[in-house]
Structure formats: structure tokens, C-alpha cells
């Protein structure tokens, strides 16, 4: 098979560290690729006023696959203050390059698997009926609509007249807000389109079928948010009936789902939701399987672009330690999702098995797995460094 070209997007802080480690694991698993490192993140914002340079976009456009570490983001004003002097006061406005990537390439499907590793000391434990403890085996994949909804960016404080006038045509607006001065109103819209809703629903059902999950749960709030959540659930019923009768369709409200989270997380399979609720429910399930050191993700567009990244950020607190202490597993698992995407399933399976074995054996644990506070001395106290965890995974890879 022709050698793959992967666009490596290290970004900032620990993003760089964990990406290097993931590539070491990919190499050790025999995955042959050319990695082209592309510029993204804080350094490029400060020096060029653009955290997502055009040259990076071009590279992803050409090669289609991005393996991304993490970036540092800061609020608008703080970001502007850190620009080099030559770029100060030029009206440059910071916006997150990862959000920029999602929008530019319309990476509208986000998949976030949360699966319990046997022996992970961070696994969620629950009181069982006999007064002992249960460790439910979570195996959930959250499909989050990644471009619309509450994160669509269509919002105003003190809305312009046309917007205000349009709102004033709605009886509920008149009744509940009609006498509030315009200047005292902020509005964030929640827009769902049929096209994107259908894509995320079908992606969820396809995944359930391909990997043998028995149910797809729409996790929204259709009884209250009737138009957007309501549309998603209605479309889910139609799609299930027409094309996925072999898969059960469940419906939970986001608030109730948060309660069910600790009661019966093992009952869920594929979960599908809009942007905000998908973000919430995926962080919640990630907490049951070990948190940020384990939470991986993939984002896809309709035209075959995939960007794979851990859900954690750049953790600046830990970025400059002489010996890195962060857990590389979320990044390694994200790399496995990339391998699945390009049909290198056998290599992905071998890496996942190696990770599972290291965790089950329990000899090599990063500081988070030992419930330590992240400090440089955790390694002296018995925690594995980032490199040692990677080495342990590589040592378990069958060849
Ligand atoms: P963060 O995810 O970077 O770190 C939060 C805490 O989680 C860390 O202090 C650490 O205790 C733990 N943690 C994170 N990754 C870990 C790992 N691999 N192993 C062990 N522990 C880990 O989030 P924070 O501190 O809120 O944000 C830091 C920067 O990252 C900010 O500038 C933020 O905007 C950015 N960020 C970027 C994201 C991305 O690139 N997709 C996502 C989230 C935050
Ligand atoms: Mg999040």
C-alpha cells in the first residue's frame, strides 16, 4: 500500500509531547507514513496574528488527515496583548484554531468513544445491591454534531433592530421579554439544519451497526426545546424506521441522562446529540473511564477529511517540566481512531490491546492514574513519565 501522508499538528504545550509519543507508537506498530508537521497554535498567533495559517489549511486540504495535539486559547483581550509589537493595535482578533478547523473543513461529525479499561484505577465504581461495589463496564460512543447549535456563533448582546424586530414577532418573546429594554438582552441562537442533523444521526446508526451496538440514544430535550431537539428526535425515528430497524432507538433528556450516567452507564451504546449536549455528555462519560488522560476524539467532514485529537487541552501547567508527566493514552487512542478511518484496523486493534494490557497489569501508571497532584516530583514518587507509559505500550505490541 502507498505510504500515507499525515499532517501532524502539534499545537502548544503538552499537545506537542503527546503527539510525538503517539507517533512513536504508530511507528512501533508498523504503520508507515510520512508526517508533515504543520503550524497551528499560540506561537503563530503571536508572531503572525493567525493561529491557523493558510499554509496549514492547504496541507490538510491536500492530504486529508490531521493528527492534532492541543492548542492554547485565551480570551480575546489577553490574546491581543500577547501579539508581537509589530502586530499590536492592528485590529487582529483571536479565535480558536480548532474551532476554525471545524468550520473551515465543515468537520461536522465528532465521535468520542468512552470505554472502560479493565484495571484502570480511575474507573467509576458504584455501590451494589449487596452493599459491596460494582464496576460497570462502560462502552459508549458519543456522536456530537460539531458545527451548529449553540456553538454556531450566531449571537448578539443588545441585538440590532432587525433581529429585535424579528424576535418581537414571536408571541413567547413578546410575553416573556417584550418589556425588557433591548440593551439588556443577550441572545445566543441554537440553529439545527436538516442536512447536518441527518448526517450526525446516520453516522451514529452506521457506527452502531458496524460495531454491533444494540441501541442509538438521542440525548436532547425534545419536550422543551421543541424545534431543534424535536426535529432531531423526529428525524431519528424516521431514519431508524426506514434504514436501521435492527437497531433500537432510545430517547433520553440531557438532564435525565446526567442522572442515569451514574446509575446505569453500562446500558448505553451509541449516543447522538447536538453540539452543546454532545459536548456535555461526552465529558460526563469520559469522567467514568478515567477523564482527560483517556478521552479521545475524531472529527470528520462529508468530503473525507478527518482530524483526530485528544479532548484535553495544552495543560500549560505541565508543559515545561523537564520530564513530562502527562498521560499519552488519550492521544494514542486518537491515533487509533485515525487508523480505523484509513482502514488500518488491524494496527489500531493491536495498539488498543497493548494499551489495555499495560493498564490491566497496573505496573506502569501516570500520575493521574495514581490520583496524584501533577507536580515534577510525581516521577520520584512512583508515577510513570509520559515516555515511560509510551515505552510500556510499545513493549506490549505484538509484531
Ligand atoms: P487542559 O485539558 O489543558 O487541562 C486541564 C487539566 O487536566 C490539567 O491541568 C491536568 O490536570 C489534566 N490533564 C489534561 N490533559 C492531561 C493528560 N494528557 N494527562 C493527565 N492529565 C491531563 O484544560 P485547561 O487547563 O482548561 O486549558 C489549558 C489550555 O488548553 C487553555 O488555553 C485552553 O483553551 C486549551 N484547550 C485546548 C483544547 C484543544 O486543543 N482542543 C481543549 C481544551 C482546552
Ligand atoms: Mg469539552
Features:
two-stranded antiparallel sheet; 15 helices; 41% helix; Isopropylmalate Dehydrogenase; 399 residues; alpha/beta; 2 domains; binds 1,4-dihydronicotinamide adenine dinucleotide; binds magnesium ion; globular; 14 strands
Main β-sheet, spatial strand arrangement = 2-1-3-14-13-4-7-12-10-11
Rg, Å, rounded: 22 Å
Strand content: 15-25%
Query: How many E strands?
Result: 14
Note the gap between the termini: 18 Å
CATH topology of the largest domain, by name, is Isopropylmalate Dehydrogenase
Largest sheet: 10 strands, mixed
Overall structural domain count: 2
The number of helices is: 15
CATH architecture of the largest domain: 3-Layer(aba) Sandwich
Q: Which structural class should the secondary elements be placed in?
A: alpha/beta
Q: What is the N-to-C order of secondary-structure elements (H for helix, E for strand)?
A: EHEHHEHHEEEEEHHEHEHEHEHEEHHHH
CATH homolog superfamily of the largest domain:
Isopropylmalate Dehydrogenase
Highest-level CATH class of the largest domain = Alpha Beta
Low-confidence stretches: none
Give the overall average pLDDT. 96
User: Helical content, roughly?
Assistant: 40-55%
